[in-house]
């Protein structure tokens, strides 16, 4: 489903290479986790896949269901089924959360040539999803992410993900800044979307999120490459021994 | 950006800040479906012109075309003679070529209007079709001006329309129904003929004949406009609106509006304007006077969408407007809301004279300047009475190579004790070729009054745009959404239907400003 081949990326403005040949395949229905120390390139990978500016792809490809993502505008990638849950969700003052959501959903539907969802139908869908994520009506009315707590922002990302029904979900450090209860809510939201057809790429520093979202495959990223791949036990190894041993072993 | 928190001005009633659902989406659709200036077509219709240029004879001719009494002709001539001695103001941050006042037509009217139509049925079908195409059917039906798809939400509401085409009013709807409530709503030329006592008593008392260069010019040559009188203790049974259309070439439009809100009355008034695309700039110099007696309340909303000129700055309307409300009565309240998206040049400062004790003035403004547009706009809050309050919320948006200036005066006179002003002035820049300027003038001449001024300038944030796009919106949708959020407080001060039109306009006006 998501196939990344030999991906090399540098910063646009300076001569700094960040990704040095990433190879990664996420199959439909699987959850892959990427772990790694700070600065290993995990977040850059998620940004490059979703099309954020400031990066230059010097080599390689990334396809979703066979279509080259790297040639697409960010909104085309979204319409193709890619979703990124941001590590730092952005505030948009004055724009109601509900308005934002419906604009996004209908923009994607339009891009795919599907009919738009009516306001009434949409409201029903959002309310049902919001309830699962413990998001109240007040939060839906407030401007997007403005004045939201860390936990509220992350739950709001998962709500967007649930409403947009992407094929491929990337979660960038969704656990950062969350307490245990908030993490469980977020994990439940993600697990509810595991339907055997969607792919997930979960980027995290810590094993603890993976206690709640059980990965099928765990990758360790260091210095712009995937250096080790294994099963869930690899995450536990990191939890116990840190990255030092693993990195020493691969070098 | 500065909209994270609600405004802290407890003395004044806070506007509703709940986000209106279902409106932004309209914006977004409109962007996708529309060309840039929607109203740029013209109507092919036979016109009668007064000879080009300006002289006493032209002033007399305009007066006689309107069958005006002698006192009115004299009033115009006085203004004309005064105007000859005045110089065009150049203090605004506006750059435009010299205007040749002799190279303009000051009066242009459809030939079919030579014989004044007795009712709407008698109006030239071409004119009716023009307004129909603009989205303002001159029929007495429950629909508002300028908003497509408005049926869904305005059911049960009526809006009376006075339609001004070049120099004349072609018709006014719902007159009979309004008359039942004692409300007079007609063209100003009709008011001069039919209600001379009211016109004589109030015309020029808010904006004097010699107030400024453009107002004086207007006083001499105004050809038509709207007149409103709301009797004491009357809530106007429907919203009133005037739709101004410039059609003829090389012709200036000089309309004059006079609104009198008698004691304890209320009216909400809407104004819209458009013009065809022409390569040569056209002059528009209007005057609006509002008189408020004790306990009266007037809401005046404008969506100004004159042709802005092309991307290189060719053509467009030069818009020099004097709007002023005089809160003569105690506890009277006026609210100006403007959405300025059109015009090549905008010079406009809707003002409030807070003369009556405990009177209130509010000014909400969105000014958008894209491409080569220049806007110098703001307000004057002149506090003369005790315990007077004013509130200014200005949102300036600049894109392309445009220059956008907020210019505002807050003046607390010695007798205006215990008065309050709150000003919030935010500028948003899109791209790096445009400019935003804020020029506040503050004068406080007593010790018990308080003036607060807050100003911010920000750029449309790349992270916000990327966030929107990563959710599937294209760049223009994303900009429209972010900008509408920036303008939210002002959009919400507009009547619902106008707010929708304004949101669409915000999006359209910014087309091509990104990427």
TrEMBL record, chain A:
Entry-linked Gene3D superfamilies: P-loop containing nucleotide triphosphate hydrolases
Classification via InterPro entries: AAA+_ATPase (IPR003593), ABC_transporter-like_ATP-bd (IPR003439), ABC_transporter-like_CS (IPR017871), FeS-cluster_ATPase_SufC (IPR010230), P-loop_NTPase (IPR027417)
Keywords tagged on the record: ATP-binding, Nucleotide-binding
Domain ABC transporter, residue spans: 2-248
Domain of life: Bacteria
GO terms for MF: ATP binding; ATP hydrolysis activity
Family: Belongs to the ABC transporter superfamily. Ycf16 family.
Name of this protein: Fe-S cluster assembly ATPase SufC
Gene of this entry: sufC
From TrEMBL, chain B:
Organism listed in the record: Frigidibacter albus
GO biological process entries: iron-sulfur cluster assembly
Chain ranges of the SUF system FeS cluster assembly SufBD core domain: 244-486
Annotated gene: sufB
Family according to the record: Belongs to the iron-sulfur cluster assembly SufBD family.
NCBIfam families hit by this protein: PRK11814.1, sufB
Record-linked InterPro entries: Fe-S_cluster_assembly_SufBD, SUF_FeS_clus_asmbl_SufB, SUF_FeS_clus_asmbl_SufBD_core, SUF_FeS_clus_asmbl_SufBD_sf, SufBD_N
Residues in SUF system FeS cluster assembly SufBD N-terminal domain copies: 178-236
Name used for this protein in its record: Fe-S cluster assembly protein SufB
Superkingdom, natural source: Bacteria
């Amino acid at each position: 489903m998501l196939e990344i081949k030999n991906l090399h990326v540098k910063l646009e403005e300076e001569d700094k290479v960040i990704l040095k040949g990433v190879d990664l395949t996420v199959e439909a229905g699987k959850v892959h986790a990427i772990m790694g120390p700070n600065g290993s390139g995990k977040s850059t990978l998620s940004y490059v896949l979703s099309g954020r500016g400031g990066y230059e792809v010097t080599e390689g490809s990334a396809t979703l269901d066979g279509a080259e993502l790297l040639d697409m505008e960010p909104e085309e990638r979204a319409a193709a089924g890619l979703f990124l849950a941001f590590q730092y969700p952005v505030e948009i003052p004055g724009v109601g959360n509900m308005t934002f959501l419906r604009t996004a959903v209908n923009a994607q539907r339009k891009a795919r040539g599907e009919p738009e969802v009516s306001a009434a139908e949409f409201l029903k869908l959002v309310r049902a999803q919001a309830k699962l994520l413990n998001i109240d009506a007040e939060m839906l009315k407030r401007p997007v992410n403005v004045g939201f707590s860390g936990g509220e922002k992350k739950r709001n990302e998962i709500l967007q993900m649930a409403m947009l029904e992407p094929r491929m979900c990337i979660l960038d450090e969704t656990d950062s800044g969350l307490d245990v209860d908030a993490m469980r809510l977020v994990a439940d939201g993600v697990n509810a979307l595991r339907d055997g057809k969607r792919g997930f790429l979960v980027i995290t520093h810590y094993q603890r999120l993976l206690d709640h979202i059980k990965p099928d495959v765990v990758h360790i990223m260091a210095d712009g490459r995937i250096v080790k791949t294994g099963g869930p036990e690899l995450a536990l190894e990191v939890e116990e021994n840190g990255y030092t041993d693993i990195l020493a072993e691969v070098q | 950006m500065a909209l994270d928190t609600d405004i802290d001005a407890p003395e004044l009633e806070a506007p509703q800040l709940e986000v209106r659902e279902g409106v932004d989406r309209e914006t977004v659709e409109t962007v996708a479906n529309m060309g840039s200036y929607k109203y740029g077509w013209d109507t092919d219709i036979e016109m009668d012109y007064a000879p080009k240029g300006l002289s006493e004879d032209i002033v007399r001719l305009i007066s006689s075309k309107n069958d005006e009494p002698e006192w009115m002709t004299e009033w115009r001539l006085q203004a004309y003679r005064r105007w000859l001695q005045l110089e065009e103001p150049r203090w605004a941050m506006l750059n435009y070529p010299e205007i040749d006042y002799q190279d303009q037509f000051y009066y242009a009217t459809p030939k079919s209007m030579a014989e004044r139509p007795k009712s709407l049925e008698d109006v030239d079908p071409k004119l009716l079709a023009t307004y129909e195409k603009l989205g303002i059917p001159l029929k007495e039906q429950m629909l508002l001006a300028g908003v497509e798809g408005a049926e869904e939400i305005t059911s049960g509401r009526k809006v009376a329309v006075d339609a001004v085409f070049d120099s004349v009013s072609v018709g006014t709807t719902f007159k009979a129904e309004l008359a039942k409530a004692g409300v007079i709503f007609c063209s100003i030329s009709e008011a001069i003929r039919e209600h001379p006592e009211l016109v004589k008593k109030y015309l020029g008392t808010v904006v004097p004949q010699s107030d400024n260069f453009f107002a004086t010019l207007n006083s001499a040559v105004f050809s038509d406009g709207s007149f409103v009188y709301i009797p004491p203790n009357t809530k106007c049974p429907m919203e009133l609106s005037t739709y101004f259309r410039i059609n003829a070439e090389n012709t200036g439009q000089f309309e004059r509006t006079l609104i009198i809100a008698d004691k304890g009355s209320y009216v909400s008034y809407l104004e819209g304007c458009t013009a065809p695309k022409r390569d040569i700039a056209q002059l528009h110099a209007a005057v609006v006077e509002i008189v408020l007696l004790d306990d009266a309340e007037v809401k005046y909303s404008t969506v100004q969408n004159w042709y802005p000129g092309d991307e290189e700055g060719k053509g467009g309307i030069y818009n020099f407007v004097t709007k002023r409300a005089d809160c003569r009565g105690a506890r009277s309240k006026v609210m100006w809301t403007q959405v300025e998206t059109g015009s090549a040049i905008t010079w406009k400062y809707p003002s409030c004279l807070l003369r009556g004790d405990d009177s209130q003035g509010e000014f909400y403004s969105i000014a958008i300047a894209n491409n080569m547009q220049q806007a110098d706009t703001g307000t004057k809050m002149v506090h003369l009475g005790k315990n007077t309050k004013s509130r200014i919320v200005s949102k300036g948006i600049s894109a392309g190579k445009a220059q956008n200036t907020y210019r505002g005066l807050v003046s607390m006179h010695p007798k205006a004790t215990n008065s309050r002003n709150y000003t919030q002035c935010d500028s948003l820049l899109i791209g790096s070729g445009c400019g935003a300027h804020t020029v506040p003038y503050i004068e406080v001449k007593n010790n018990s009054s308080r003036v607060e001024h807050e100003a911010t300038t920000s750029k449309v944030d790349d992270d916000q745009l990327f966030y929107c796009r990563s959710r599937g919106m294209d760049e223009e949708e994303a900009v429209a959404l972010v900008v509408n959020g920036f303008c939210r407080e002002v959009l919400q001060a507009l009547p619902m239907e106008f707010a929708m039109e304004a949101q669409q306009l915000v999006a359209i006006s910014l087309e091509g400003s990104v990427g």
